[in-house]
Amino acid sequence: MSHRFDNKVCLITDQQALGAASGIGRATAQKLCSLGAILALSDINGEGLSETIQLCGGGEKHLLSTFDVGLSEACNAFIKQAMERHGRIDHIFNCAGVNPTAYALEDTTDEYWDKLVNTNLKGTYNITRAAITHLKAGASIVNVSSILGVTASQNYAIYCATKFGIVGFTKAMALELGPRGIRMNAVAPGYIDTPTNSGVVEGPEGVKAMVAKVALGRLGTADEVADLVAFLFSDESRYINGSIVEINGGITRRSRAAGGQVASDNTGSESERQIIAIMNLANLPSMRSFYKVILASSRDYSDVPLQFAAHVLM
Prior knowledge:
Blueprint: E1 9-12, H1 23-34, E2 38-43, H2 46-55, E3 63-66, H3 72-86, E4 91-94, H4 110-131, E5 140-144, H5 157-177, E6 183-189, H6 198-202, H7 204-211, H8 222-233, E7 244-247, E8 254-256, E9 262-264, H9 270-281, H10 285-296, H11 304-313
Parallel strand pairs: 1-2, 1-4, 2-3, 4-5, 5-6, 6-7
Antiparallel strand pairs: 8-9
Helix pairs in contact: 1-8, 3-4, 4-5, 9-11, 10-11
């Protein structure tokens, strides 16, 4: 049974595809409202925000605000407004995000950098900083990273920088806020069926290409991410702090990059990523004997990737 959020004030921040006006933000607003929460919603898209609150059943108890999370003064004003209206903030979903476009770094602009960094990273910083002094023990914050916040992909350097930044920010703030009884975690979605997902926008072929990489054979839904966020807000996750929770259906495809090295576009386990690194280093003759020793001393040969690496090296 889902944990209830009766009379809990849940704040969800903007922006565009990820914010409270559509996609994951909208689904999370609906989920939390269905569980009794009082909502404080923001988005840069005022019309979409109004649609979201109607889908939540309307009601004057909820707070709506239209602004850009990249502007610190606007974030400060939103938190102040939420406190004046409700007197408390229990949970924050820093869902502000701009989806990436594939660019070689030399083709990017200062404007593109600013757009992604100001929304994806600075927005999370702005809201968190403004809200901290108002949070009490038992409060929690969930940020949004990405599969490109735990593994990299070419032509997405700036987006990766913002989402890897969210991972570091989340883990550091979990240590800072934990002694106060406040938890911070992040979700790292994979291919989710949202209106501005680049593959969805591309059409059937783009969707097919994404689905081919997923072990479960389908895209994720915004509702599934919302379920995870609700869990991370709940007392059922009371000992989860500083975690980056991947939700991707199992990204399975690996390819071979230029130079013969193994490249991965999945999130995988830490051990799997280490095996890839070992195999890459194994291409260097000077490192081969060193990694033979490491594998020979390993006690875990039940791991198939480890067995494969051992076979290649030995």
